[in-house]
Specification:
This protein is an alpha/beta fold. It folds into 3 domains: 139 residues, 3-Layer(aba) Sandwich (Rossmann fold); 181 residues, Rossmann fold; 82 residues, ACT domain (Alpha-Beta Plaits). 31% of the residues lie in helices and 19% in strands. It is built from 13 helices and 16 strands. It has a 7-stranded parallel sheet with strand order 8-7-6-9-10-11-12, with helices on both faces. A 5-stranded parallel sheet has the order 2-1-3-4-5. Helix 1 runs parallel beside helix 11 and helix 5 packs across helix 7.
Length: 410
């Protein structure tokens, strides 16, 4: 019978979009993935669909929308990497249904975001943006009016995760008092104090910094009512997700003078590229600092993200490891030498493992290791079997009803 063979690394086509750090490509090439294409910027949907047709591994950042329609046009896709924190640009459920794990880099750019938040807070409290515009216009507004120290002010952090907690540490080093609200109990760092509710935080904070994901509960979270609940003369900083803040309501709060200023790095609808204008009611205001979704975009962060996500993609391609997948059962697997390793992705239905084991037993093949994990509608089995196994077993596994896909790694 025909022997089992794995797919050579140099034939696995990898496409990295949106100017992903070249360190990711170098890392993949160093480990045998030589068929890598780097693309600067995002692509129009039709052009992207054509590129996806024969891609096995794809890397994107935040501007490429991998929806159900595009995923359907990528029949060879085995893994998708989001070289950023967020994954809301991907139809995660559909990717899982197709047997495609999605990986991201939730921690690599936390320091970059935290540093920018502190920089924006300093600039807002010192009214630097407005004063800089005045000096560029040839005027000389040398006055202390509207400028304040951060020392002694209260920073309210909404979302005390990896980024929020780092912002907390940096703010305390500047002499600020830090309070935070999170829907999960979190261990405070330094002298930071948790508060019981978001409303409690808004009432007491001189500056509010948002660090939450996009969920059903956070979309439109900072609406007219909550912006009005903030302290008069306070500041708002959003480096989380554009959908979290109602920007029209924010503009009105600034017009009324209820808020003294804001800094916004993320927007509900962001331009696809440099030639597309930003649509926002906050444009043109000197009491608002606008930045183009760059909180995590430092050279250092992009390099770390490139290596982290490339490493996760390679671990899945080489070993079947799915630790860090955001939509998939997680298994951490070391190589098992002297065996064949087969991945079986299937619908999470009763009897699947029984049918897999029956196929192996019917072929009189010895199983050296077996790993199973499920997540929602998807089940994931990794089989390490003796080397004498033939392709007949692989065919039987693919024919099991409920199978999404099966792959031979080695």
């Amino acid at each position: 019978m025909t022997r089992l063979f794995s797919f050579p690394r140099d034939r696995i086509r990898v496409v990295l979009l949106e100017g992903i750090h070249p360190g990711a490509q170098a890392y993949l090439v160093e480990h045998g993935y030589t068929n890598v294409e780097l693309v600067e910027g995002s692509l129009p949907k039709a052009e992207l669909a054509a590129m996806l047709a024969d891609a096995h591994i794809v890397g994107i950042r935040s501007r490429t929308m991998m929806d159900k329609e595009l995923l359907a046009k990528a029949p060879k896709l085995v893994a998708l990497g989001c070289f950023c924190i967020g994954t809301n640009q991907v139809s995660l459920d559909e990717a899982a249904r197709l047997g495609v794990p999605v990986f991201n880099a939730p921690h690599s750019n936390t320091r970059s975001v935290a540093e920018l938040v502190i920089g924006l807070v300093v600039m807002l409290r010192r009214d630097i943006f407005r004063k800089s515009a005045e000096v560029h216009a040839g005027r000389w507004p040398k006055t202390a009016k509207g400028s304040h120290e951060l020392r002694g002010q209260t920073l309210g952090i909404v979302g005390y995760g990896h980024i929020g907690s780092q912002v907390s540490v940096l703010a305390e080093a500047l002499g600020m008092r830090v309070i935070f609200f999170d829907i999960q109990p979190k261990l405070p760092l330094g002298n930071a104090q948790p508060v019981a509710s978001l409303e409690d935080l808004l009432r007491h904070a001189d500056i509010v910094s948002l660090h939450v994901p996009e969920t059903a509960d956070t979309i439109g979270m900072m609406n007219e009512e909550r912006l009005h609940a903030m302290r008069p003369g306070s500041l708002l900083v959003n480096t989380s997700r554009g959908s979290v803040v109602d920007q029209d309501a924010l503009a009105r709060a600034l017009d009324r003078g209820h808020l003294a200023g804001a800094a916004v790095d993320v927007f509900p609808k962001e331009p696809r590229g440099a030639d597309e204008p930003l649509q926002s009611p906050l444009r043109g205001r000197r009491d608002v600092i606008l930045t183009p979704h760059i909180a995590g975009s430092t050279v250092e962060a992009q390099e770390k993200i490139g290596l982290e996500v490339a490493g996760k993609l390679m671990a899945y391609s080489d070993r079947g490891a799915t630790v860090g997948a955001v939509n998939f059962p997680e298994l951490n697997l070391a190589p098992h030498h002297g065996t064949h390793r087969i991945l079986h992705i299937h619908r999470n239905e009763p009897g699947m493992l029984q049918q897999i084991n029956k196929a192996v037993a019917d072929e009189n093949i010895n199983v050296l290791a077996q790993h199973l994990e499920t997540r929602g509608p998807i089940g994931y089995v990794v089989l390490d079997i003796e080397k004498q196994a033939s392709s007949r077993l692989f065919a039987l596994l693919k024919e099991i009803p409920g199978t999404v896909r099966a792959r031979i790694l080695y």
